[in-house]
Amino acid sequence: MAVNKGWYFLGIAAAAYVIAALIKPSFLLPAMQFFVKIILKILPLFVLVFAIMFVINYFVSPKWLVKHLGKDGGIGTWILAVITGIISTGPIYMWYPMLAELKEKGVRQGFIAAFLYNRAVKPALIPLMIFYFGLMFTIVLTIVMIVFSIIQGKVLEKIVEV
Amino acid sequence: MNEKSIKKALISAAKPLYRTAPIIVGVVLLVSLVNALIPKTTFATLFSKNIIVDPVIAAALGSILAGNPITSYILGGEFLGLGISLVAVTAFLVAWVTVGMVQLPAEIMMLGKRFAITRNVLSFVFSILVAIITVLILGVV
Q1: Residues B65, A64: contact at Cβ < 8 Å?
Q2: Rounded to two decimals, what is the model's pTM?
Q3: Helices in B1-141 by DSSP H: which ranges?
Q4: A93–B16: do the CB atoms touch at under 8 Å?
Q5: Which residue of A has its CA nearest to B34?
Q6: Which B-chain residues 91-120 have CB contacts (< 8 A) with chain A?
C-alpha cells in the first residue's frame, strides 16, 4: 500500500516546530493555542465538505461534470465558478480535496482557479471592509476581483495546458 | 436511494478527505507557527513609501502571511494611517486572500505542481494589477 505523502508533510511541519521551539521556546504556547482555535473552527467545515462530496459523488456523474464544467462548458461555467467561490466558506485548503477530485473527473482547471480566486470575495466580510476602507473602495475592489478571477482562469488554462 | 450507490458515494467522499487530513493539519500548524513567530507590528517598517516598490513589497507580504482576512483589514488600515499608498495597501489585501505561500505545498500535493505554482504566481501579479486598476477607477469616479 502506498504511503500517504501527507504524513511526510505533517512530519515536516512538526519538525519546523521543533526547530522553532529550540530557537524561541516562548512561541510554543501561543502557536498551539492558535492551532487549536483554527482546528475547532474548521471541524464543522470538514463535515460540510464531506457532505458536498457525497452529494456530488451520488448525484452527479463524471460525464455531467465534463459536459458542464469541462472544456465545452460555456459562460455558465464561469458564472458557476464565481458564485460557488463566493459562497464557499472556511480556509482555502479545506476545498483542496473536493477540487482535486473534480479536476480528476475532468473539470476545467480555469474553473478551479476562478473558484479559488473568488473565495477572496466574502459577502460576510463586506461590512467590515466598508468600515475600514469605505463603500466605494469595497464595491470597486469586489467587481475588479470578480472580473480578474475569470481572466486568471483563462490565462491559467493557456499556460497550464500548453 | 440505492444502498450500494450510497456506500460507493460515501467511500468516494471519505477517501480524499482521509488523504488530505494530515496535509490540512500540517498547513494549520504552519499557519500557527508563522502567526506566533512574526510580530505584526514590525511589518510597517518594511515599506519605503515608494509608489512603485511598495505595492510589490505589500503583495509579497500579503503572500507570505496567512490568516483571517479581517487581520489583513486591520493591518491595511494601520498601513494607510502610516502614509503607505492605497495601491500598496490594496495589493496587500488582495495578495493576502489570493496567494498562499504557507499552503502552497498542500496545494501542490492536491492539485499538482504546475497548477499550484502558476495559480499563485498569477495571483501575485494580479494582486498588483487589481490594486492599480481599483485605485485608478476610484480616482476617476
Answers
A1: no
A2: 0.79
A3: 3-37, 53-64, 69-81, 86-98, 104-111, 113-140
A4: no
A5: A31
A6: 93-94, 97-98, 100, 103, 105-107, 109-112, 114-115, 118-119
Q: How far apart are CA B100 and CA B54, in angstroms?
A: 19
B50 touching A, CB under 8 A?
A: no
- The answer to whether A99 touches A115, Cβ cutoff 8 Å, is yes
Say if the ipTM goes beyond 0.90.
no
Contact between B98 and A117 using a beta-carbon 8 Å cutoff: yes
Q: Which residues in chain A are contacts of B13 at CB distance < 8 A?
A: 50, 53-54, 56-57
pLDDT at B41: 67
Q: Give the closest residue to A91 by CA, choosing from A19, A40, A160.
A: A40
Question: pLDDT tens digit string along A108-132?
Answer: 899 999 999 998 887 877 888 898 8
pLDDT in tens, B49-63: 787 888 999 999 999
